[in-house]
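Run log // design_07
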């Protein structure tokens, strides 16, 4: 069965488990588009929107962002689904913001055997790229077997 991913020229800005629904065939659908926006590559967005635990550093820094923030949030969501907790934690909003901006992302040491080698390879690549350059992350992730197997058709 082929899975399809639809990309549109907008930013969802609130990718998190609560906003992803599965249909009877197991296909994922985004819901709650109340803060989604259309964007232009010529002018980055600067407003803060979304759920803080899933926000990319560029949103928190208010220096401008585009669609790559949704890939960050998807990475945080995937981490949470695999490991049962988000990669960054804080008891207050300022502590959480500090963790997202400054902490080094570390893979749980006891999990590789539970999620499999292809998934761990993907997570290691994502964790490195999350800390480096989110835009480049999309192209790199699509070459990883774990992702290319799941997404047989990517429409730009």
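design_07 sequence
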């Amino acid at each position: 069965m082929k899975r399809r991913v639809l990309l549109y020229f907008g930013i969802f800005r609130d990718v998190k488990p609560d906003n992803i629904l599965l249909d009877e065939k197991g296909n994922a659908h985004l819901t709650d588009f109340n803060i989604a926006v259309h964007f232009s590559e010529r002018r980055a967005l600067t407003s803060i929107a979304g759920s803080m635990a899933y926000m990319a550093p560029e949103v928190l820094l208010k220096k401008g962002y585009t669609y790559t923030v949704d890939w960050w949030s998807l990475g945080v969501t995937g981490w949470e689904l695999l490991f049962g907790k988000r990669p960054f934690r804080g008891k207050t909003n300022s502590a959480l913001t500090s963790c997202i901006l400054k902490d080094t992302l570390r893979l749980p040491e006891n999990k590789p055997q539970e999620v499999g080698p292809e998934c761990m390879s993907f997570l290691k690549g994502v964790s490195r790229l999350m800390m480096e350059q989110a835009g480049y992350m999309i192209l790199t992730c699509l070459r990883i077997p774990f992702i290319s197997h799941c997404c047989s058709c990517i429409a730009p």
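The chain has one domain: 4-155.
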